[in-house]
Write a structure and sequence with these properties.
7-stranded mixed beta sheet, alpha/beta, 2 domains, Transcription Regulator spoIIAA, membrane
Length: 688
């Protein structure tokens, strides 16, 4: 017999008070550790092995910087903002993550999905403010005085929206919304870190994240088509944006700009070919080909000297200023407008950053601190929001490039930031003539990885049908409704799938493997022998209120015996027999003599005298679960059938004890509970 260890009673109040005193105390050593934990760079930078690490960090930093510049300019289209703000975002994010991040290889900065989510909020608020979402149309506002400044060639408004009583144009209001959204998202992430709410990411399964990324990629692709073919249609807003945008595209397809179509076709062919060759020969290349940069430089030169904007009316990026705009505090009233939108943005940003950090840490054998990562990405949003930047996250594609080019530490992030700074200070005006269709091509080609997930659907379906269904539902909702609702639908649907799987789990009757003490599912394996007079029932889920009825129905169906119906039938028959005897009739209701009465009590003979319940898959019991087991114990006992429990874990045993299953003082526990199925079967055989 196995005896349980005596549990030592823990005074939780004392423990909590001790932890509180420890956390509230302030000593020089503790203060130093706090600062070192908050800024991990202070721990690893003094130990930096310059000769061993510097070459890899410089190379990877330069490569990422070269990739980052064209991507930052391109992703500004997704966010509905000017390219200069994307460059600010890329610069500040790399610097802050260098100081606060715990991952050595993650590339934090502008990310397509995050840019899309920011852009959707910006577009909605611009529309509510009365601005025209058409990029090339002059802004219009029904409530305000229009003032044209011929020197700056911009349109300004006296806005009284959201409490902003300042002269502000469409661009000014857009970046105001973006910075307010970014600041609130960063605050959410820091609060999640303080209260250790990182467990929220557990509810975003791989299927949900993949489906969300693929659905959002379809939305991004759709939003870029108008730039590819050079048509001017309003940016769709609200639910069903993907369908509405495609309808508008086909309605205006006759207005396509031939110059943009040809440019787009050439750029996509060049980019895809270079990417495919890079993937095929990546082991032979020391660093990835800077195809995006080459395409942007060549396209800008052709557009400038060919005067594509003036001659063919091809849409271009326009003037990109140099230097830094003075910092500005995000507007509080705008924060209140976007507070709800910031929550999914904060969660998605954190989840992508932590999952990529953990992937790199596992690959290169070091550890990260998920809570510190939440602080890092939170401050990568809070601090840059004062400098006209928008939300950031870790990006998979740039992280893979970073690791493949010899990155050793986050010093590479500083090198990338220096490349972006060079563009910000000196080179930004050179991109004036860059066509928007070229930027759209870069965005679309960067979506190859997410769109390739469609090819994995058959393999995913073969591995797990439920996960495939979660992926399809999340992807469809993200693409056809909206990204935020798609993410929510994916989380809710995946949780419902888990609930349904526990509500209707697998059940089985077990047979004995010949000449062994092991038992398995009779329907799944051949050559199993049934145990005479004993039924062995397995239930592969926790037993709780939601699956109680299914447990009972499955038990009655597999054993071919419902004890309640059998008991009712017996009572009914006994009542009829008593009535016949009172009348002096010596024959039973079925016309037999009294001697045949015993046989008639059980017309269908019960072929077992013991029921063994295999509890090895029952992880816990709630009150309903305990009462259900007590119910079947009583019902079968009325039919002279004993119920034996086998393979219960300590948690289940404790629940049964507290629920009074074993009676007073647990007197019958040794005859009701067994540590293996075989022991229970042997006990049942030995019973008279």
């Amino acid at each position: 017999l196995m005896e349980r260890k005596t549990r030592v009673k823990i005074n939780r109040k004392e423990i909590m008070l001790a932890k509180l005193r420890k956390s509230c105390s302030c000593t020089p050593k503790k203060l130093k550790n706090f600062v070192m934990d908050f800024l991990p760079v202070l721990r690893w930078l003094p130990k930096y092995q310059c000769k061993e690490y510097i070459w890899g960090d410089v190379m990877s930093g330069l490569v990422i910087g070269i990739i980052l510049v064209p991507q930052a300019i391109a992703y500004s289209l997704l966010a509905g903002l000017k390219p200069i703000y994307s460059l600010y975002t890329s610069f500040f994010a790399n610097i802050i993550y260098f100081l606060m991040g715990t991952s050595r290889h993650v590339s934090v900065g502008i990310f397509s999905l995050i840019s899309l989510m920011v852009g959707q909020v910006v577009d909605r608020e611009l529309l509510l403010a009365g601005f025209d979402l058409n990029d090339d149309a002059p802004p219009a506002l029904g409530d305000g005085s229009l003032q044209n400044d011929s020197h700056s060639n911009t349109t300004a408004f006296n806005l009284t929206i959201a409490g902003m009583n300042a002269e502000c144009g469409k661009e000014c209001y857009a970046i105001g919304i973006a910075t307010a959204l970014t600041f609130v998202a960063g605050v959410y992430q820091v609060l999640m870190g303080i209260f250790r709410l990182g467990f929220v990411s557990m509810y975003l399964s791989e299927s949900v994240l993949d489906g969300f990324a693929t659905g959002a990629s379809l939305t991004i692709l759709t939003a870029q088509v108008k730039y590819l073919i050079g048509i001017k249609i309003p940016r769709s807003q609200g639910h069903g944006m993907l369908v509405i945008t495609w309808i508008n595209i086909f309605r205006n397809i006759s207005q396509a700009n031939l110059c943009d179509v040809i440019t787009s076709a050439i750029c996509i062919i060049v980019l895809v070919t270079a990417k495919e060759l890079g993937d095929r020969y990546k082991h032979k290349l020391k660093f990835p080909l800077p195809t995006e940069l080459v395409v942007i430089v060549v396209a800008t030169l052709v557009s400038h000297y060919g005067k594509l904007n003036e001659v063919y009316a091809s849409s271009v990026s326009g003037a990109i200023p140099t230097g830094f705009i003075p910092p500005k505090v995000p507007h509080v009233n705008l924060m209140l407008r976007v507070a709800i939108d910031a929550l999914p943005l904060a969660i998605v940003s954190f989840v992508f950053t932590v999952s990529l950090s953990e992937m790199c840490a596992k690959k290169y054998a070091y550890t990260i601190r998920a809570n510190q990562e939440m602080f890092a990405v939170g401050f990568c949003n809070i601090i840059p929001s004062f400098f006209h930047s928008f939300a950031t996250s870790a990006a998979l594609a740039k992280t893979l490039v970073k690791t493949s080019t010899g990155c050793q530490t986050q010093v590479s992030g500083v090198i990338s930031a220096m490349v972006v700074l060079l563009v910000l200070l000196f080179l930004a005006p050179l991109f004036y003539s860059l066509q928007k269709c070229v930027l759209a091509c870069i965005i679309i080609v960067s979506l190859r990885g997410a769109l390739r997930k469609f090819r994995d659907v058959p393999a995913r379906y073969h591995v797990n049908k439920v996960d495939t269904l979660v992926w399809i539902v999340t992807m469809s909702a993200s693409a056809l409704i909206s990204t935020e609702i798609g993410l929510l639908v994916g989380i809710v649907f995946s949780i419902l799938c888990i609930i349904v799987r526990t509500q209707r789990p697998r059940t089985a009757l077990l047979g004995q493997i010949q000449d062994t003490s092991f038992y398995e599912d009779d329907l799944e394996y051949e050559n199993l022998s049934s145990v005479p007079k004993v039924k062995i029932f397995r239930f592969e889920a926790p037993l709780y209120y939601a699956n109680r009825n299914y447990f009972l129905k499955s038990l009655y169906r597999l054993t071919s015996l419902d004890p309640n119906l059998e008991a009712a039938r017996r009572k009914k028959y006994e009542k009829k027999e008593k009535q016949h005897l009172k009348k002096g009739d010596h024959t039973t209701a079925n016309g037999l003599g009294i001697g045949g009465t015993t046989l008639q009590l059980v017309p269908k003979q019960i072929d077992f005298q013991a029921l063994v319940v295999d509890c090895s898959s029952i992880s816990f019991l709630d009150t309903t679960g305990v009462n259900t087991l007590k119910e079947i114990l009583k019902d079968y006992k009325d039919l002279n059938i004993s119920v034996l429990l086998a393979c219960c874990n300590p948690s289940v045993i404790d629940s049964l004890k507290r629920g009074g299953y074993f009676g007073k003082d647990f007197a019958n526990m040794q005859e009701m509970l067994f540590y293996s199925i075989h022991n229970a079967v042997q006990f049942a055989k030995d019973q008279k």
